[in-house]
Write a structure and sequence with these properties.
The protein is mainly beta. It has one domain. The protein has three helices and 14 strands. A hairpin with a 2-residue loop joins strand 13 and strand 14. It is globular and about 50 Å long. The two termini are 18 Å apart.
Length: 190
């Protein structure tokens, strides 16, 4: 099940402040032009997808940032690389992000785009010119880092921040058979 909660840009930026100091542990490309940045400690996840007979084994960070739109990595005065570069250039240069620490993660602009500033002076920015909404997602896999709301550990709730229908929101994913999750959402709806 899912539950949606609207956010202001200020609330979102406050929730994203926990990213500061996390190390980029893994970067990978998904369906073009997507990239995924795994921040913090990595942990192994086993996913059972309906489209696969065997489970998928993957590594997730404490927080994952996924761009579903165009993006670029900026140096102080130039573009280092971005979604319009060749596959080879992207693959090679993505590796250079691993090990850097996050200085800040912010949402900027009237239509909130994602900006991740790194401790080496580079910054990663999303931008969308082919969709009517910004296209990025931030998953809080380590819910202890999710400071927007205190989540009960027994509820097994996964929060994701994104833009949907022109609104900035947290999407909470949970099992509706879990009594702790149902109790939590009943309380926040009141």
């Amino acid at each position: 099940m899912t539950h949606y909660e609207l956010l202001t840009v200020e609330e979102a930026n406050a929730a994203l402040s926990v990213c500061r100091g996390l190390r980029i542990a893994r970067c990978w490309r998904s369906v073009e032009p997507c990239i995924v940045l795994e921040m913090g400690r990595l942990r192994r996840e086993v996913l059972q997808l309906a489209t696969r007979s065997k489970p998928l084994h993957t590594l997730s960070g404490q927080i994952s940032c996924m761009t579903e739109s165009d993006w670029r990595v900026e140096k102080r005065r130039s573009i280092h690389f971005g979604s319009g570069f060749s596959d080879r250039q992207i693959d090679t240069r993505l590796k250079s992000l691993v090990g850097t620490r996050v200085a800040a993660v912010r949402l900027l602009g009237r239509l909130p785009e994602l900006r991740i500033e790194l401790d080496d002076g580079r910054a990663i920015s999303t931008f969308t010119n082919w969709s009517n909404q910004p296209r990025w997602h931030i998953g809080f896999h380590d819910t202890k880092l999710f400071k927007h709301r205190s989540l009960p550990p027994a509820a097994d709730i996964s929060p994701y921040m994104h833009v949907r229908r022109s609104r900035l929101e947290i999407e909470y994913c949970y099992d509706d058979q879990n009594p702790a999750a149902n109790r939590f959402f009943r309380e926040i709806r009141q």
